Amino acid sequence: MGKRKYLGRANERYVKTYTSRTVRVGGNGLKGYAALIKVHECHRPLMVGEAGAEVWITYDGYAELCYLPDGENWQVYTLYDDSGRVIEWYFDITRVNALDENGDPYCDDMYLDAALMPGGQIKILDEDELRDALERGEITQDEYETAYRVLNELIENKIIGEAYMEKLCAYLLPLFGGESDG
């Protein structure tokens, strides 16, 4: 199984202090949970990307708007810089989106990810991790195929698309007072 990820929790390897709020979403055709994380201070900033095309995705003053839909096999993070501009939308393909025994929303990550960049470029990520998990027996052949099916459906249905993501964020952000900046 992939890593269990709880909604509204920052990666503490990089983030020193943050605030977070999680809300139940039930309107505009959406059902699930959303969280807004505001990063106050990092242990160390996080930069990703290829040489010459790196982007900071975690830095002091940055924010993450997260959405975990009920009954789906994905979650998305909208990453904002300290000026409130979208850096990227990051999708996790998940085995399950659920609540734990304390009622805290989480997903079990299935390794396969996608990043949507402003401008519309889609990057498929961590295919090697998915393949390795299959070879190690951590996932079944059916789960492997499901991960790709879900990813392809998200692309075909334009959920991994700027128009959908801008509309989603425009609906979710006001649930937190509309603020994406620190």
Q: How would you explain this protein's 3D organization?
A:
The chain is an alpha+beta fold. The protein has a single domain, classed as FomD barrel-like fold (Beta Barrel), CATH 2.40.380. β7 and β8 form a beta hairpin. The longest helix has 16 residues.
Brief summary:
The chain is 20% helix and 44% strand. It is α+β, with helices and mostly antiparallel strands and 182 residues long.
Mean of all residue-level pLDDT scores: 92
**Domain module count:** 1
Ends apart, CA distance between termini: 34 Å
Q: What is the second-level CATH architecture?
A: Beta Barrel
Helix content: 10-25%
- CATH fold annotation: FomD barrel-like fold
Contiguous low-pLDDT stretches (5 residues minimum) are: none
Radius of gyration: 16 Å
User: How many beta strands in the DSSP annotation?
Assistant: 10
**Which class in CATH terms?**
Mainly Beta
What's the total helix number?
A: 3
The share of residues in extended strands comes to 35-45%
Structural class: alpha+beta
CA-based shape: globular
Order of helical and strand elements: EEEEEEEEEEHHH
Biggest sheet, in brief? Answer: 8 strands, antiparallel
